[in-house]
Amino acid sequence: MEITYLDAIKQALDEEMTRDRNVFLMGEDIGYYGGAFRATEGLYEKYGQWRVIDTPLSESGFTGAAIGAALMGMRPVVEMQFADFISCAFDQIVSVAAKNFYRWGGKTPIVIRAPFGGNIHGAAYHSQCPEGWFFNVPGLKIVAPSNPYDAKGLLKASIRDDDPVIYFEHKYLYRRIKDTIPEDDYIVPIGKSKVIKEGEDISIITYSAMVHIAIEAAHILEDEGISLEIIDLRTLLPVDKKGIYESVKKTSKVIILYEAPRTGGVGAEVAALISEEVFEYLDAPVVRISAPDTPVPYSPPLEEFYIPKVDDIVKAARRLAAY
Amino acid sequence: MDIEKEDLLRLYYFLKLTRSLEDRITAMYRQGRILGGVWTSNGMEAISVGYACALNKNDIIAPYFRDMGAFLVKGITPRRIMAQYLGKKTGVTGGKEGNVHVGDINLGVLGYPSHLADNYPVAVGVALSFKIRGEQRVVAACTGDGGTSRGDFHEALNMASVWKVPVVFFCNNNQYAYSTPVKLQMAIKNVAERALAYAIPSEIVDGNDVVAVYQAARNAYERARLGEGPSFIECKTMRMHGHSEHDAAKYVPRELIDEWKKKDPVINMESHLISNNIAKEEKLKEIGEQVVKEIEDAVEFAEQSPLPEGKEAIEGVYATPV
Hints:
The complex is a heterodimer.
Chain A: E1 2-4, H1 5-19, E2 23-27, H2 43-47, E3 52-54, H3 59-71, E4 75-79, H4 90-104, E5 111-116, H5 131-134, E6 141-143, H6 148-160, E7 165-170, E8 178-180, E9 194-197, E10 202-206, H7 210-223, E11 228-232, E12 235-237, H8 241-251, E13 254-261, H9 266-277, E14 287-291, H10 300-306, H11 310-322
Parallel strand pairs in A: 2-3, 2-4, 4-5, 5-7, 6-7, 10-11, 10-13, 13-14
Antiparallel strand pairs in A: 1-8, 6-12, 9-11
Helix pairs in contact in A: 1-6, 3-4, 7-11, 8-9
Chain B: H1 5-30, H2 45-53, E1 60-62, H3 68-73, H4 78-85, H5 119-133, E2 139-144, H6 151-163, E3 167-173, E4 176-177, E5 180-181, H7 182-185, H8 193-196, E6 202-206, H9 210-225, E7 231-236, H10 254-261, H11 265-275, H12 281-304
Parallel strand pairs in B: 1-2, 2-3, 3-7, 6-7
Antiparallel strand pairs in B: 4-5
Helix pairs in contact in B: 1-2, 1-11, 1-12, 2-9, 4-12, 5-6
């Protein structure tokens, strides 16, 4: 049966809660109400108020509480209502969760679900892609699925992982992306990228919602005789270096495509890795397509300008093909 | 509440051990044998000794940095602590962390993060797990007067009270957060008043009276185990040294130190034990000698222990490496 990206998330939560009674959920409005995006709908009724916990408006507080429960052997999954509000929990994530194991051996298996991304007219506080804020923090794992299969498999893998994982789920994909996925239990391993489409001329290294515009661009360019290879990183931290290098060695030209602000994030790191490790395979400069270094704007023409578009990729690919 | 003689002697032993161990660490710091900073609980030992001695073995502590007494009571040995200060492989954290930044999940000691009050929400989560699993365990969390100004302190008290979880919050009110006196920290007279806003019962105790801290803690743990929710205990004391050993604390009026010198928690307890015929001077002397031996042994152990190898720096970032 075909299910949405959002259904895949809900199924993963439900199945993990059934499989392991240590798994429980915390967040704002996730219980009786079922979550701002309905990701936890029905779970409160099924598992009760102490496994689907409605929290006070305290992102730092409930993230800290998740850490404490995790240290006692529980496997909490917290929901940031919007990824933007994760800034309130920043200290608990980077100072406590990420460092517990290294500093004193405290295993902290928490999952932080963070609905992120734009194209929903949410402006500066409901559209951000904050993965870059955490990309520089040793001890964290960061994943960002682009489709229902990965959404379910990566969430299950994150819940079963012994480290803190930030799970960035894209709001734009929730109900737009559907797929038929296996009914049997499966996971998508953390740390492995996926070749979404094989190609010969240019590698597009991307993740989350941007994967879909890369696919659209690839169709357009195919007609012009330019063959794109699309790499979906799936895990951002630790990033799959091998997957990146293999594709670069094959195509020798690279576009890194991401929705976050341009500077100092995943794009910069992937570009640096490529220039350090596979420089001699490159036939052209590495190209980044990203949002500009501004807050996310509201008005439709502004937001449309802000978020990378199919046309941006098509133009960049033509330039690279001719290089 | 009656306290057994052996419990009183246990309190005294840990007071004496904490005082002597930290005095020794301070002396070694002045000799240049310890790198980094040294923050002690000198003059405040009764708080962490008291709250930790009142716990059961399988209870948890979410300590702060002047809780050496609680580390010792929970079973972190002087050997491991001394090795920790010297950055040795045999230290509590194998050299990954320094000084009071210890943690040992097997002993029920959560790692202390420098950000004060960060451990308060973490403690609430520990208590929440006990509630979810129906366990009769409690968690003791501690912070300083300064830490109570942080948002995490308030979020933690609020969540704990809404969820009615078995956590007891302690505040070591030693009157100064580094150089900032309590009057510049808050407009209320007692830290305990903060608990009122969260409908959490609170108590103010003499933080230099280990028996008073122990009794208040035991009552609060009892409430928590009965499912009656969190409590808050403000322990009033005085920081007798600087914030850390490099700080001469010239901002603290001399008279205040002189006044609190008369209320020394170790001497307090000695008088209590002798005047109530609980122990004779020889017994206390014997405990003192035992403590000295343990500390000498710890210093020797730590100094002879190996340092970690440089390459270990990149190990242990993930519990499940990718």
